[in-house]
């Protein structure tokens, strides 16, 4: 074996050009495969980094008649579930929360969560310092403790060993640090596809006990907490689901005013692991398919290369056989070479994948859930090793079998040619080129469709103008800003100051920014349209905005008026709605002047008049049609966290320093957080989709490159093989153009057959992309035509060089004359 | 038909050093002549033939073919002239293995301006003339050496060249097959075709009307 490896290494060293091309081919294929495997492993296969994560579930609710799915629960509901459910070892409620952490120079906004006492223990990850929250700390007045992440501990406190017991000034109030969670601990996760009301933002670094207020405990319909649970040992998801349904039935009976008495209301017990991976699953499976195609193309390439080499070594092999080498012995020698080649390429591929994965993480870790956990671990390396060995055997198989059956008499004759074997191998080589072209076309079609879809998505009008607009969040602590008036005062002053800055065209704020991943919906009643148990109150998206908000985001006014400073807290209550809202509830177009209320219409409600209809905004995603939205003046419904949009006539990011100065001139303890251009907000909203497009595009590029290298190799070999024929033809009068045509025609024939097969396979397989396509049919003719032309052109170009070389054949040399 | 003046073919050996394959060749061949070029191995016979056949362009001197100054022609013009005037017969026949006899005969026509109908007629004529109609669908590997060379000659003359160049046309044949080919050459010459052949065989040379002896690249003797 060692001797075989030594000989194989010598052979590879002897032919550096062959070895380099082969290694690069394998490296590209294995690199792509390893990178995707690590994504699949990290995002789909590897369990969440909690204890027995398969036992963890999220409990969300739905109100089907109001089209509300996967919504959070209210505090009274949580308490009911907690008290009555036995399917769970532990249950907890949590909510994403931001903290303003006062610092030495300037305050910093830190992402975090408020959690009930059982949330962290049920995840099964222990603090590296200190302790979890005690149950009694989840009550008002005793909730002034926090647990911080090791990341924050290292970054802000230089890993101070005395951190436990240290007081942090958060939101203007002192909190005592009681624990430090490990750096790898991540909760709440960025869970995509949670739908209405359940999305979580950045990575949490501070956890605070959740103490429900008395007011919260009175509002059964105010749902803003997610519920997590650990299934009791031996309890299945279905059993838990059944129990939750029976608790829901009890709640319906006990609180008939809060729930429809039909099947509209319900709860869903969902596996946390499934939720964490479901968003990326279709894309990952498609990418896995794509790298498999790349791998096949690479195998085809290497097979043709090794076949060419086998032809060149026919005499050597024949001599070996003549000297007594058996077939198995010869096969072993060939496999040693191919597997060695594959392993060398594999090592290069893993290095390439390491770089690729790090690049992906650098680009997408903020926006693609769990991407930061992706790495090339031993599992991935093991699979990669198996693939390398398997690949080596596959691409060594055909040349191996061919070499192990040499036609001795012909091969040993000086200049002898074995025409039957030659024809057989040529057919195989042609078949491989056809397969490569076909596979590359399948991949290219998929990438083409995704790219077109992505381009269409980029061109979708979101309903606002993202250019030259800066966004940032401001969160006001309850201690300093205890009432609506103080919050409104701060925000109005902030807007006035920012709007007055040179270069600023408009500034406005809202409680919720489009495409930023957060949302808030409210039930309401329309005057004159009473609701009952059979027709529930409608529930739609609601945001609080400043008078200049629509001017700042450049969303047009369709009818009526924008809000003004006159729409203050004391003024008559007003509301604006978007076109979809107006059309949905007043299809005849008479929404303006109508009144709605967020109160119980039977209990002396405050009616709110619709004074404006604004353009639709795509809030949930560029690929999701606008939903009905309501906008109320911030002054009439203040909220402690706002997102400011600053419109400028230049790159708005240049204004950041000035804006920060103005905000801190009002209150130096209020930090600007989540500062992003509006274009970045949009880009981040399509990041998972972009990741698929980029990866599939890269793989398609690699496939085309490999296919063209394959075509080049085969045509070069063909030209060498046909040099004699070409020489004869030239001696018989063929012009250079005839020879060029001869080679190109041969190549064109292979490319055409490959293209036809590729198109058929592509048409049969692109429907699998449907889930990732937006506004593009899986059978988009233009895409298929363009990718065919592109591949055809590249493939022809790859044949052109060998064809040119063929025209330079010297008949005198070729026909081997003696002087 | 052919006029060579001070023709020279050399290959560089090093800095300003050359290896001369042909030196100062002056030769006239009239239309209808049958010339045999003889000489030991390495004398430059095949080189001369390939220069006459315009396969080689790296020579110096003057070469007139049918009053046309080949030395002044561009490569494309040379190729056109060659296609109009010259047919070539090889020692190793150089039939294309993957093509049938019929297809091999068709190749030269496919590179010249013949219509499909004309090509079919000419190939049929040639098959008939060489009495190989029955073999038209066979592949070269299914023919004997003599039959292969017969096809080789048929292929060389199918486009009706005025000059037939043959590089040891019987070199790979046994004597009776060789004689058959030489008789064929004589017949073609009698019909007016100019023939220049390279041969080692005195007997084959005797079919010609004139023998040219080459040695070390020099034209050393002419026998008429």
Note the main attributes of this structure.
heterodimer, A: 819 residues, alpha+beta, eleven-stranded mixed β-sheet, 23 strands, 49% helix, 16% strand, elongated, B: 224 residues, alpha/beta, Rossmann fold, four-stranded antiparallel β-sheet, 7 helices
Helices and strands in order:
The complex is a heterodimer of chains A (819) and B (224).
Chain A: H1 2-14, H2 16-45, E1 56-63, E2 68-71, H3 75-84, E3 88-101, E4 108-115, H4 119-123, E5 129-130, E6 145-149, H5 150-157, E7 167-170, E8 173-181, E9 206-209, H6 214-218, E10 226-231, H7 237-254, E11 265-271, H8 272-278, H9 281-312, H10 314-322, H11 327-364, H12 378-403, H13 408-412, H14 419-458, E12 469-475, H15 484-499, E13 504-510, E14 521-523, E15 525-526, E16 539-545, H16 549-553, E17 557-560, E18 574-578, H17 579-585, E19 595-597, E20 608-614, E21 629-633, E22 641-648, H18 656-666, E23 673-677, H19 678-685, H20 687-721, H21 723-731, H22 736-765, H23 781-807, H24 811-814
Parallel strand pairs in A: 4-9, 6-8, 16-21, 18-20
Antiparallel strand pairs in A: 1-2, 1-10, 1-11, 3-4, 3-10, 5-8, 6-9, 7-8, 12-22, 12-23, 13-22, 14-16, 15-19, 17-20, 18-21, 19-20
Helix pairs in contact in A: 1-11, 2-9, 2-11, 2-12, 9-12, 9-14, 9-20, 11-12, 14-20, 14-22, 14-23, 15-18, 20-21, 20-23, 22-23
Chain B: E1 2-14, E2 17-29, E3 34-38, H1 45-52, E4 59-65, E5 68-69, H2 75-85, E6 86-89, H3 101-110, H4 116-129, H5 145-157, E7 163-167, H6 175-190, E8 194-198, H7 202-205, E9 210-215, E10 218-223
Parallel strand pairs in B: 3-8, 3-9, 6-7, 7-8
Antiparallel strand pairs in B: 1-2, 1-4, 4-5, 9-10
Helix pairs in contact in B: 3-4, 3-5, 5-6
3D structure, described in words:
The complex is a heterodimer of chains A (819) and B (224). Chain A is of the alpha+beta class. Chain A has 3 domains: 334 residues, no CATH class; 226 residues, no CATH class; 193 residues, no CATH class. Chain A has 24 helices and 23 strands. In chain A, helix 9 runs antiparallel to helix 14. The longest helix of chain A is centred in the middle third of the chain and has 40 residues. Chain B has 224 residues and is an alpha/beta fold. Chain B has a single domain, classed as P-loop containing nucleotide triphosphate hydrolases (Rossmann fold). Chain B has 7 helices and 10 strands. A 6-stranded mixed beta sheet of chain B has the order 6-7-8-3-9-10, sandwiched between helices. In chain B, a hairpin with a 2-residue loop joins strand 1 and strand 2. In chain B, helix 3 crosses helix 4 and helix 5 runs parallel beside helix 6. Chain B is globular. At the A-B interface, helix 21 of A face helix 1 and helix 2 of B.
């Amino acid at each position: 074996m060692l001797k075989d490896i030594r000989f194989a290494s010598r052979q590879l060293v002897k032919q550096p050009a062959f070895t380099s091309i082969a290694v690069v081919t394998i490296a590209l294929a294995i690199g792509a495969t390893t990178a995707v495997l690590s994504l699949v492993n990290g995002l789909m296969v590897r369990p969440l980094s909690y204890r027995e994560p398969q036992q963890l579930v999220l409990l969300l609710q739905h109100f089907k008649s109001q089209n509300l799915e996967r919504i959070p629960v209210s505090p009274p509901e949580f308490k009911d579930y907690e008290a009555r459910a036995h399917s769970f070892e532990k249950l907890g409620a949590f909510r994403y929360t931001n903290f303003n952490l006062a610092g030495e120079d300037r305050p910093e906004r830190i992402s975090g969560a408020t959690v009930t006492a059982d949330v962290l223990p049920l995840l099964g990850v222990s603090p590296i310092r200190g302790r979890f929250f005690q149950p009694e700390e989840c009550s008002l007045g005793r909730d002034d403790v926090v647990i911080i992440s090791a990341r924050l501990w290292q970054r802000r406190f230089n890993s101070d060993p005395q951190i436990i017991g240290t007081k942090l000034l958060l939101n203007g109030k002192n909190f005592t640090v009681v624990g430090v969670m490990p750096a790898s601990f991540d909760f709440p996760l960025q869970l995509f596809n949670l739908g209405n009301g359940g999305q979580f933002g950045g990575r949490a670094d501070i956890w605070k006990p959740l103490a429900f207020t008395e007011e919260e405990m009175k509002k059964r319909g105010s749902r803003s907490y997610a519920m997590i649970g650990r299934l009791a040992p031996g309890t299945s998801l279905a059993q838990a689901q059944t129990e939750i349904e029976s608790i829901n039935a009890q709640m319906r009976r006990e609180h008939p005013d809060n729930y429809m008495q039909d099947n509209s209301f319900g709860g869903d017990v969902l596996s946390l692991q499934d939720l964490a991976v479901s968003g990326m699953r279709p894309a990952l499976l498609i990418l896995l398919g794509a790298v498999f195609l790349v791998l096949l193309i690479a195998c085809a390439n290497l097979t043709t290369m090794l076949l060419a080499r086998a032809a060149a070594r026919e005499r050597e092999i024949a001599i070996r056989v003549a000297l007594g080498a058996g077939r198995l012995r010869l096969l072993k020698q060939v496999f040693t070479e191919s597997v060695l080649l594959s392993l060398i390429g594999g090592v290069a591929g893993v290095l390439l994948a390491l770089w690729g994965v790090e690049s992906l993480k650098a680009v997408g870790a903020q926006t693609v859930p769990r991407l930061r956990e992706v790495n090339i671990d031993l599992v991935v390396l093991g699979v990669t090793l198996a693939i390398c060995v398997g690949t080596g055997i596959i691409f060594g198989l055909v040349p191996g079998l061919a070499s192990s059956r040499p036609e001795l008499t012909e091969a040993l004759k000086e200049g002898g040619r074995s025409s039957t074997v030659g024809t057989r191998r040529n057919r195989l080589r042609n078949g491989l080129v056809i397969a490569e072209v076909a596979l590359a076309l399948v991949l290219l079609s998929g990438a083409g469709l995704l790219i077109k879809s992505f381009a269409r998505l980029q061109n979708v009008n979101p309903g606002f103008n993202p250019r030259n607009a800066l966004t940032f969040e401001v969160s006001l602590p309850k201690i300093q800003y205890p009432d609506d008036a103080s919050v409104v005062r701060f925000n109005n002053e902030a807007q006035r100051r920012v709007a007055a800055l040179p270069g600023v065209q408009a500034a406005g704020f809202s409680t919720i920014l489009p495409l930023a991943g957060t949302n808030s919906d409210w039930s309401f009643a329309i005057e004159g349209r009473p609701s009952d148990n059979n027709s529930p109150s409608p529930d739609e998206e609601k945001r609080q905005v400043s008078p200049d908000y629509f001017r700042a985001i450049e969303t047009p006014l369709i009818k009526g008026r924008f809000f003004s400073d006159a729409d203050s807290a004391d003024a008559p209550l007003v509301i604006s709605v978007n076109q979809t809202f107006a059309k949905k509830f007043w299809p005849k177009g008479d929404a303006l002047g109508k009144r709605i209320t967020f109160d119980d219409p039977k209990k002396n409600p405050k009616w709110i008049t619709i004074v404006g209809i604004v353009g639709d905004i795509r809030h949930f995603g560029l690929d999701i049609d606008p939903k009905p939205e309501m906008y109320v003046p911030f002054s009439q419904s203040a909220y402690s966290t706002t997102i400011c949009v600053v419109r400028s006539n230049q790159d708005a990011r240049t204004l950041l320093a000035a804006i920060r100065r103005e905000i801190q001139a009002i209150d130096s303890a209020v930090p600007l957080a989540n500062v992003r251009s509006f274009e970045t907000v949009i880009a981040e909203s399509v990041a998972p989709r972009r990741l698929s497009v980029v990866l599939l595009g890269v793989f398609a590029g690699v496939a085309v490159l490999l296919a063209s290298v394959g075509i080049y190799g085969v045509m070069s070999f063909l030209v060498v093989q046909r040099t004699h024929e070409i020489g004869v033809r030239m001696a018989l009068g063929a012009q250079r153009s005839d020879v060029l045509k001869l080679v190109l025609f041969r190549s064109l024939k292979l490319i055409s057959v490959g293209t036809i097969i590729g198109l058929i396979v592509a048409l049969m397989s692109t429907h699998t992309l449907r889930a990732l396509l937006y506004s593009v049919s899986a059978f988009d003719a233009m895409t298929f035509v363009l990718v065919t032309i592109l591949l055809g052109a590249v493939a022809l170009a790859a044949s052109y060089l060998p064809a040119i070389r063929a025209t330079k054949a010297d008949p005198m040399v070729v026909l081997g004359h003696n002087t | 038909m052919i006029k060579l003046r001070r023709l020279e073919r050399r290959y560089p050996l090093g800095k300003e050093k050359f290896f001369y394959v042909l030196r100062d060749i002056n030769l006239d061949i009239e239309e209808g002549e049958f010339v045999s070029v003889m000489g030991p191995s390495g004398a430059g016979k095949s080189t001369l033939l390939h220069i006459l056949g315009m396969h080689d362009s790296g020579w110096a001197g003057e070469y007139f073919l049918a009053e046309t100054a080949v030395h002044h022609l561009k490569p494309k013009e040379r190729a056109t002239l060659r296609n109009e005037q010259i047919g070539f017969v090889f020692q190793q026949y150089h039939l294309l293995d993957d093509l049938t006899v019929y297809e091999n005969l068709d190749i030269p026509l496919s590179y010249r301006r013949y219509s499909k109908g004309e090509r079919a007629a000419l190939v049929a004529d040639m098959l008939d003339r060489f009495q190989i109609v029955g073999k038209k669908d066979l592949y070269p590997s299914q023919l004997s050496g003599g039959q292969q060379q017969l096809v080789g000659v048929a292929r060389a003359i199918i486009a009706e060249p005025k000059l037939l160049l043959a590089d040891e046309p019987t070199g790979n044949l046994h004597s009776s097959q060789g004689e058959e080919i030489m008789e064929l050459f004589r017949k073609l010459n009698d019909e007016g075709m100019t023939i220049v052949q390279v041969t080692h065989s005195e007997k084959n040379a005797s079919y010609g009307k004139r023998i040219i002896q080459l040695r070390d690249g020099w034209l050393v003797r002419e026998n008429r």
